[in-house]
Amino acid sequence: MGSTRYITSMGELSRKDDSLCFRKNGKNVYIPVETTKEIFCLNEISINSKLLDFIGRNNIVMHFFNYYGGYSGTFYPKNQYMSGKLLIKQVKTFECDRITVARAIVDGIGKNIKEVLYHYYKHEKPEVKPVIDWLSGEFRKSTEAAEDIPELMSYEGEAWARFYGTFEFFLPETFIMNKRVKRPPDNPINALISFGNTLLYAKTVSAIYRTHLDQRISFLHEPAERRFSLSLDISEVFKPVIVFRTIFDLVNNKRLQVEKHFERKINYCVLNDEGRRVFIEAFEKRMESVFMHSRLKRRVSYRTAIKLDCYKLIKFIMEGKAFVPFSLKEGV
Q1: 27 or 224, which is more confident
Q2: What span, in angstroms and rounded, lies between the C-alpha atoms of 118 and 192?
Q3: 4 bridge partner residues
Q4: Residues 46 and 137 in one domain
């Protein structure tokens, strides 16, 4: 799966000469360091400080997840892209022009939700038209007029809620959502959204790590301890494009089925091992899929598009150039 390695089984990860070795059930699986940029640990694994030192020296980001597929944390190598000048400007932008960046992010979310829904409207699902119209009209006017972050966040929340409300028109009944439940997810569709959002968040952590931006200083979400809040900002506009299009494709083509790919208990629902394998494969395929970038005039992957949004934000912070997050319709 390109430069990303997923570990889904219990075992031990260690350094073996100049490679990584994952040992499970008495067998060794070798992971080449030179082609690995990030590792996703989706099960319990044993590691030691010698391994972490080796991973750190090779600038590999290592993400850890809990039993429910939720994000636990990241081993973040010493940052090799530090820039004091950008850090100062990023803080000043937060203090003086936070609303501009936040408004651009919320507007980008609305545009990409609208584009995803328009696909279903074109394929004889007229029931989604009221939400498309709302996103084009009242939602955009409201975000443009918003005067503070809480107001913007309320419009963003309403956009997602209306989006979730359209699922009944193009998803099977077994994947209909009653309400969004996160910790832990309580039904198959919530399980898929939580898992997909978590993978995308970790991908964004990796992308920001390879720029000079500071992960802790965000604009739409409140900067917080114990999480990389800028990754929440950058990943938001890509959720409709990457996470939800992956979910819709897998569900509507019956590649994921409730009775076959989920583990359900009294108060939670998670993907089983086979379900995670199917989702990860589709998620990575979409991350690596390409589109014609309208400004660069070349084909670009969605993985690269996330990093390009980081550079757009840097341009805004350093040069005042308008920050316009990724648009599915415009291909930029």
Answers
A1: 27
A2: 22
A3: 38
A4: no
Render pLDDT for 149-208 as a digit per residue (tens, 0 to 9).
999 999 999 999 999 999 999 999 888 776 675 666 768 888 899 999 999 999 999 999
Token code pair at residue 54:
């080796």
**Domain enclosing residue 88, as ranges:** 84-319
Distance between CA atoms of residues 180 and 184, nearest Å:
11
pTM comes to 0.91
Residue 74 domain flag: no
Residue 18 and residue 35 in contact, taking contact as beta carbons nearer than 8 Å: no
17 in Cβ contact with 4 (< 8 Å): no
Pairing verdict, β 298-301 and 290-293: antiparallel
Token pair recorded at residue 97 = 């022009």
At which residue do the structure tokens 């966040």 appear?
A: 153
| CATH number, domain containing residue 171 | 1.20.120.920
Residue 52's nearest CA partner among 62, 44, 43, 42 is: 62
Question: What SS3 state is found at 16?
Answer: strand
- Residues 166, 50: one domain? no
On whether residue 71 sits in a domain, the answer given is no
Q: Is residue 186 part of a domain?
A: yes
User: 10 Å Cβ neighbour count for 135?
Assistant: 22
Question: For the chain, what is the domain count?
Answer: 2
72 vs 232, residue with greater confidence: 232
CA 153 to chain centre: 18
